[in-house]
Amino acid sequence: MTVHFQPTVSPEACPALVLNADFRPLSYYPLSLWSWQDAIKAVFLDRVNIVSNYDKTVRSPSFEMALPSVVSLKNYVKPSRHPAFTRFNVFLRDRFSCQYCNSRQDLTFDHVIPRSKGGMTTWENVVAACSTCNLRKSDQLPSEARMWPAHKPYQPTVNDLHQNGRLFPPNYLHESWMDYLYWDSVLEP
Ligand SMILES: [Zn+2]
Question: What is the pTM of this model?
Answer without folding.
Answer: 0.72
